[in-house]
Design goal:
Radius of gyration: 16 Å
Low-confidence stretches: none
Order of helices and strands: EEHEEHHEEHEEHH
Structural class: alpha+beta
Helix content: 40-55%
Largest sheet: 6 strands, antiparallel
Number of strands: 8
Length: 147
C-alpha cells in the first residue's frame, strides 16, 4: 500500500527520484516499469505498469463509443508515456507534462494506495486548503461508508 507524503525534487533533466519508501514497495511488488500520465495536466500520476494494465483491462470492458472512456483515454495518452525507473530509482517525466504540471524543483509525492501523485508543492497546498478543503460533508460521506 502506497501511503503518505514524501517531498522530492525534479532535477535539471526532468527526472523524479522516487522516494525510497515508495520505490522499495513498487519494485518489490510490481517491478521498475511505470506509466506516467495525468488526466488534467495539473499533477502527475505514476502507476506501476501492473496497476495500469488492470485499469486498461477494465476500460476494455467499456464500449468503445463511451464518451467518458474516450475523453479519459485521450487525456492519459496525450500526457502519458511508459517509463522505467533507473538503478537510482529515477524516472523521466514527459516534457509536456512537466510543463503543464509545473514540475520543477521541490515537489510532493503522495501515495494513493496503488499509485503515486506528484504535485507542485504550491499547487497542492492551494488545492488542499483553498480550492478543495475537507468538509464536514466529506466526513459524513466517509462515515456512511464505514470509514
Amino acid at each position: 500500500m502506497l501511503r503518505g507524503n514524501h517531498p522530492a525534487r525534479i532535477d535539471e533533466k526532468g527526472r523524479l527520484k522516487i522516494p525510497n519508501g515508495f520505490r522499495t514497495l513498487i519494485e518489490s511488488q510490481y517491478g521498475a516499469e511505470l506509466f506516467v500520465t495525468s488526466v488534467t495536466g495539473e499533477y502527475v500520476r505514476v502507476y506501476p505498469m501492473a496497476v495500469w494494465l488492470e485499469i486498461e483491462r477494465k476500460l476494455a470492458q467499456v464500449p468503445s463509443t463511451n464518451p467518458s472512456k474516450l475523453r479519459f483515454l485521450d487525456r492519459v495518452n496525450f500526457f502519458g508515456q511508459v517509463a522505467s525507473m533507473d538503478a537510482q530509482g529515477r524516472v523521466v517525466l514527459p516534457q509536456m507534462l512537466r510543463e503543464s504540471a509545473a514540475m520543477a524543483g521541490e515537489v510532493s509525492v503522495l501515495g494513493l494506495q496503488n499509485h503515486l501523485a506528484v504535485w507542485n508543492q504550491k499547487r497542492l497546498h492551494e488545492r488542499l486548503f483553498k480550492k478543495e478543503p475537507f468538509t464536514e460533508e466529506d466526513g459524513r460521506a466517509l462515515s456512511e461508508l464505514g470509514i
